[in-house]
Write a structure and sequence with these properties.
Layout (H helix, E strand, L loop, with lengths): L1 H18 L8 E5 L4 H12 L3 E6 L6 H6 L2 E4 L5 H8 L4 E4 L10 H18 L5 E6 L12 H11 L5 E6 L1 E2 L4 H10 L1 E4 L8 E4 L1 H12 L6 E7 L3 E2 L1 H12 L4 E4 L5 H5 L6 H16 L11 E4 L4 H10 L1
Parallel strand pairs: 1-2, 1-4, 2-3, 4-5, 5-6, 6-10, 7-9, 8-12, 10-13
Antiparallel strand pairs: 9-11
Helix pairs in contact: 2-8, 4-5, 5-6, 9-12
């Protein structure tokens, strides 16, 4: 395939330049989830820093753009031990994003299987270090819905003995995408987050990926936890007010009644198990159960992308 030829030529050129002393060797970092928002940002940050990058994709057709940018490409299934070990081979570290299978009724057991597979492959490949995307609230043992999948990943990777950083990211700013579209069309901003005047920690996925890449280039021992949030906290009212100014028309925020949550996201490809997980997670966020509580055992890093920037892009899109 064309992508194979491009990737081969780029790798062959790199080897030639290294042998001739024109280009020096550098660290090789693996990025799982490079076709997603945070993985893409991490891979680009590493490439821009002059690092060698190997992106892991499930489908080779997704690899073209990365091969052109100079990244190596590995095709692997996160439950396939052999292909994962091969993807991790000879790497200096990896950024791990375990993608949730929201359409599946067994998404939690699938997440657990992927977590074990990643941990086993990282161990067998003797990876020196890992950075993994986790979530605010992952320290809680129950009442977190979807975030339980992040907890599974943390538990599996912690047991490897490999130095690992867990990025416990706040609410993704991009989660407002569908709701902002409704606001543009109907002049009302629906919100799952409540109360409407409550300011919640949020972060842009571009910041998560950038910080992941920066952390991956660090050296450390043991397990580190880094809490991530944006430059400020925002309420649904703040978002509605910004949209009002941007669009030049009044946008009213409105809480979606909890009784309507399931219906609100039905038909978007979520299984009934995923919908139940979403409801439990959102209840936890609104109640304060899922929050940055005692941060004495965690580092804190702040992104630079403002929510207004993300909302403007969502509204324009």
């Amino acid at each position: 395939m064309q992508v194979d030829c491009i990737a081969f030529l780029l790798l062959d050129l790199s080897s030639f330049l290294i042998r001739r002393g024109i280009m020096s060797t550098t660290e090789l970092y693996v990025v799982i989830g490079a076709t997603g928002r945070t993985g893409s940002a991490a891979a680009n940050t590493l490439l821009n820093a002059g690092k060698r990058v190997r992106v892991v994709v499930r489908d080779e057709s997704q690899a073209d753009r990365w091969a052109v940018l100079g990244a190596e490409v590995a095709v692997a299934d996160l439950t396939d031990h052999f292909s994962l070990c091969k993807a991790f081979s000879d790497a200096d570290g990896a950024y791990i994003v375990s993608p949730p299978q929201y359409s599946s009724e067994t998404l939690f057991s699938q997440a657990e299987a992927m977590a074990r597979s990643i941990a086993d492959a990282a161990t067998n490949a003797k990876l020196p270090k890992l950075v993994a995307l986790s979530s605010i609230g992952a320290e809680q043992q129950n009442g977190t819905g979807w975030i339980a999948m992040n907890r599974m990943l943390e538990e599996s990777l912690s047991g490897t003995g490999i130095p690992v950083i867990f990025l416990r990211a706040a609410y993704f700013m991009e989660n407002w995408g569908a709701l902002v579209k409704i606001a543009v069309e109907q002049h009302q901003l629906p919100s799952f987050l409540s109360p409407l005047n409550q300011k919640f920690p949020m972060i842009a996925t571009a910041d998560i990926g950038r910080i992941a890449a920066e952390a991956l280039c660090e050296n450390w021992e043991g397990v580190r936890i880094i809490d991530l949030e944006g430059p400020a906290r925002y309420s649904p009212i703040d978002i509605a007010e910004h949209l009002s100014l941007t669009l030049g028309k009044a946008i009213q925020p409105a809480s979606i009644p909890e009784s309507d949550w399931a219906l609100s996201i039905a038909g978007q490809g979520f299984s009934s198990a995923a919908i139940s997980g979403f409801i439990e997670m959102t209840q936890g966020i609104n109640s304060g159960h899922i929050a940055f509580h005692d941060r004495s055992n965690a580092e804190c890093r702040t992104g630079s992308v403002k929510l207004e920037t993300v909302i403007d892009a969502l509204a324009a899109g």
